[in-house]
Amino acid sequence: MAELTSRERVLKLFAREPVDTMPCFSGQGMVTVPAIEALGIRFPQIHLSAENMAGSAVKSMEMFDFDSVVVPYDMCTIPEAFGLKVSIYEDSEEILFPTIPKKWATPDEVEIPDDYLERGRMPVVSEAIKILKEKIGETHAIGTWILGPFTLAGQLVELDILMKMTIKEKAKVETLLDKLTDLIIDLGRHYREIGADYVSLREMGTGADLLSPRMFKMLIQPRLRRIFESWDPPKILHICGSTDLIIELMNDCGAEAISVDHKNTLPETRSKIGNDVLLLGDYDGFTLPGQATFEEIEEAIKQCIESGVDAVWPGCDIWPEIKAENLQALNQHIKDFGRSPTPAVGRV
Amino acid sequence: MGKEELREELLKTLSDGVVNFEEDKVKEAAQKVLDEGLNAYDAVMNGLAAGMEIVGDLYDKHEYFVPELLMSADALYAGLDILKPHIRMEDLDQKVRGQVVIGTVQGDVHDIGKNLIKMMFEVAGFTVHDLGRDVPLEKFAEEQMRTDSEIVALSAMMTTTMMGMKKVVQMIKEKNPDVKIMLGGAPLTSDVAQLFGADGYAESAGNAVQEAIKMIVQLRKIQEQ
Predict the structure, then answer these.
(1) Residue A293: inside a domain, yes or no?
(2) N or C: which end of chain A has fewer CB within 10 A?
(3) Is A208's CB within 8 Å of B65's CB?
């Protein structure tokens, strides 16, 4: 059988059909500085135009042989569409992702505009996905992500206020989460309609280093279930930080794949969730591509595979200032070591 | 009720009030400490701070999480606001009267961990120079030089902002290698903290409370020598 295309490899993995080897991909940002430099643009520019967003995604994919591209890169597109100001740090020479300098004081102040897809940089993201579909959509997978309802709420309302309200004024938090859940369902469907092949729901504000498992079960899980019931596969639930205590709850949300970072105990997770669900993770996206030695990279990739993942991918955004030789070695190891079957996916 | 008995009771009320997020009870007990002529510093350290140490332990045991930490912090501040103006200088003279520069690095607007650490330093009698959040990197070094602070505490909640810390550590250590630097934030690991040249690190808000206490104790020992 001929080798699979990158897109086939990713989609077959999500369908738990046999693949030739593990895809090299992610559900988080994986844009790189070498790619941005090769395009002759600066970091802030990749957030501001569809051409630069799509172009930097394609260039990163080409330079490091990724099987997919992922856009957008920052967590402020939705808050911006709702009317909050965004700092893009256009004059900075540092790698600084956009932030929201001032959020709303209470959930009551949050209003979701009907035409949110037309506001702020939402059209930039939509256009970038369409460009990617046209340029590389036949051969490579197009990934996107949306913040989960609680994490998104934390981008809209000051997080400390939101956290305390989960105890003191839970009903108000629930009302906001329900509204955001509806929005996320709508946006996920939109991204799929215009060309995204998979959507990762990043609910990283709900790990057990922040919220209790009980709170996760009462407040978060019902909303995540509603989202995953409403979206077509493939869909991924990603939570970074402390996930050991909530991994079974995560697995009971309805996603085809669970994604975690290096703070998760992978072998225990695999034994808890069984072999019928995809487990994705969990290399350190800062240390490995940017700092580690070749030996450390090789060891880390082997370790991930031995721990029971179905695809080795980063536990968070890849820090853009990578060493090119590190990321090339890392992705090559994933392809080389990923030729054996994994718990949930066989090999052709 | 004897004076010592009353003291013990009020300290317990303050500590329990912090643990159980009872702001009103804490305020009432703090006022009573003043009305009864008891020592305000003793009430802060052995009442409020003792309660926060229990909260830190509960966080480590996964009984408390960040919402609970924040509610406890509110209760602690309710008492601290009343007691702090009445702390006598002679009480502090026997302890460390250090200074800390604290802030969240540029690109990061998450400040929960930073505010908890700030609170612990304030409780311990430190003068805290809070630069806020999304702070340009060079500002940390400038403020350290300006204030001659012994500690600089930096926070970053995301991998995407953590790299700024490395530059700050370099800038400060180049000018003054004796400054203690504490890093905090979810993306940190001991390897990264070591790589960046930090003296202490905390990967979670509860962990940060414990780490601040350790660093304060360590500084006291150095000063006593």
Answers:
(1) yes
(2) N
(3) yes
